[in-house]
Amino acid sequence: xxxxxxxxxxxxxxxxxxxxxxxxxxxxxxxxxxxxxxxxxxxxxxxxxxxxxxxxxxxxxxxxxxxxxxxxxxxxxxxxxxxxxxxxxxxxxxxxxxxxxxxxxxxxxxxxxxxxxxxxxxxxxxxxxxxxxxxxxxxxxxxxxxxxxxxxxxxxxxxxxxxxxxxxxxxxxxxxxxxxxxxxxxxxxxxxxxxxxxxxxxxxxxxxxxxxxxxxxxxxxxxxxxxxxxxxxxxxxxxxxxxxxxxxxxx
Length: 251
Ligand code: PGA
Description:
Radius of gyration: 17 Å
Strand content: 5-15%
Bound molecules: 2-phosphoglycolic acid
CATH superfamily: Aldolase class I
CATH class: Alpha Beta
């Protein structure tokens, strides 16, 4: 049985005051025992959030990490080993905002994925198509290629220590959610792609859906057979809403 995961990606949001309030709110939630809950705060607040959530059963991750596992001369970056040392467990790799706005290529992401694992973090690999790609009927091709890039570089076994998030770019922050069936179709294709290479990795892989998930649509999405939870942006900035989404994964 795959343990569902619900993760909140706070992106570049927050002030000291709002982060303190959100952390306190999260600490007061009653969370379902069977669900792994995680948050990805902005880098500068990560240690505060880790301290604030001590003993609350919520995992903290980094939104980005360096292309090499260990500390060194790399201005402005944070090494996976440094994140791990302060208590981070996860890192987002390949979020569409980093692919599209920062310009991270598959090659950079392959290095980040490998570095994350070597430095003691579990990567949450994000994949997804743009609206143009979907309308051109290329969704499965694009998502398949993003996944193959990591498999070719790191080997399918590396995915045994990873989570995959399918996030259609057109659904992120837009209020447009993929229908449960649209999301399920892509999740099933991702699992089938893994199945051919390694049945155990495929069966155990947690596949999260991301893109305008809210309390109102979470249960229906998480009820699909290949959707094992969610990666939540905007709705994760409100503790009560996020708590409701976490409960929706606890069926
Ligand atoms: P959203 O973002 O929930 O605000 O659409 C999801 C994400 O980018 O991870």
